[in-house]
What we know:
The protein is α/β, with parallel strands linked by helices and 271 residues long. The protein has helices at 4-9, 18-29, 46-49, 75-78, 101-108, 140-150, 165-173, 175-192, 197-217, 222-229, 235-243, 250-269; strands at residues 11-14, 37-40, 54-55, 65-68, 91-94, 114-118, 128-134, 154-158.
Amino acid sequence: MQNSDIAKRGLVLLGCGKMGSAMLEGWLAGGLPAASVWVNDPNPSDWVQAQGVHLNEDLPNDPAIVLVAVKPQIMRDALPTLTPLGNGTTTFLSVAAGITIATFEEMLGAKTPVIRSIPNTPAAVKQGITAIIGNPHVTEHQLQMAETLLSAIGQTVRLETEDQMDAVTGLSGSGPAYVFYMIECLARAGEAQGLAPELAMTLAKATVAGAGALAMQADDTPSQLRVNVTSPNGTTQAGLEVLMDEETGLPPLIAKTIDAATKRSKELANG
């Protein structure tokens, strides 16, 4: 990881659970010196303790960035310890779901540079996608610094407004669970057609993973990829006629699913 500002001023990681550890592993593998990292976590794993980072030590006076990776429910207890770093040049990057930029400004100071982000669970295997949005005090350099850090767990995209976070939560934040459930359903359907449970699950997992990889790597759009595999009057077309039914198929079901998750995200954000 080539970011002299972080290496020089330091990085603070508040909370180092699964998401924080996945990012830390990526940063260290990318060349960030362990001596430039301060981790604040009451129950660090053995792996974290072995990395040579500053663990639960006094924090630097002016770190380049503080990455907030604690669970949302303990945010109000953990964040006040960092109040002295607010209203300055330290960037606060949050990966905590449902915590608005306004909440950070309220707790740290109105002039604090704050970037809110929503990664998803494939980040654990470096295949995540993270949406980010900063407040008016965040510079382009600070956004790029955040993107550099988040690239350790996958792709990043920038949003135009914070309001879009609810839709992102409904789509990519909650989306992996929808895909996992689809794998379950595919496997059960295979069993119903006479396949052994283990074989059906192996086929379902590999099919979804392979299709996703092809969709990411191919030059064709998903629509074209679908057409490519669909022979006229063949087996795929027979299945797609069920899935693509505008009244009883996947389109209205997925639309209702994303809408429900987005609405719930808004409810949680509003308390």
